[in-house]
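Here is an idea for our session: we take a single protein and study its fold together. Which protein we use is up to you, so please pick one and set it down. Once you have written the record down, we can walk along the chain together:
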Amino acid sequence: MILTFIRTLILFVLVVMALRLMGKRQIGQLQPYELVVIIMISELAAIPMENTGFPLLAGIIPILTLLLVEISISYLSLKSEKLRGFVCGRPSVLIENGKIVEHELTRLRYNINDLLEQLRSKNIPNIADVEFAILETSGDISVIPKSQKRPLNPADLNLPTKYEGIPMTLIIDGYVLQDNLSKINLDENWLKSELSKFGINDLKKVFFASLDTEGKLFYQLKAKAV
């Protein structure tokens, strides 16, 4: 029992590290070869966990080999357009200049109902409003609406806008993010001083706190235990 626990823990850590080294992507954004590598790694990790008579090293070496292959392909794909096209494929135009490209749908075995479903998920119920629709290598569809159907923005009205940026998170569940404070040239003493203005003297009681680019501090206290 203990041996199984230790083997499982080792393989779990190894698989997590392997996935981290492969990069931060969601499942829907994986290239086909990346998905194959993930499936193979999971299968290889399951064998030593289920069968304690199977050498642990015999499961670790193939996992590391697949990881090396994946990283190598990813690196070489950055340098070679031909290899990237071969391994990852190329985007396909499904709607061009407002017209459905029928032969491309046929080649990809992509039916019109799937196309309409994807357009609806992009808040475009009318296919007549689409100028271009491109099926990306990840399987997602990028949609470019016709110019008359695009949302109005301040630039269209020549309206000036100010910089907004993103708020900087300072506290999460009572833990002060010192690195974020340093990025905005502030420290924990400043944070304590600001929160004390609201009657908060213990940072551990703060569930979340952030500072926006205008200098406004937002905070929320932890819920009291029932």
Observations:
- The beta strands are 92-96, 99-100, 130-135, 141-145, 168-172, 175-176, 206-211, 217-221.
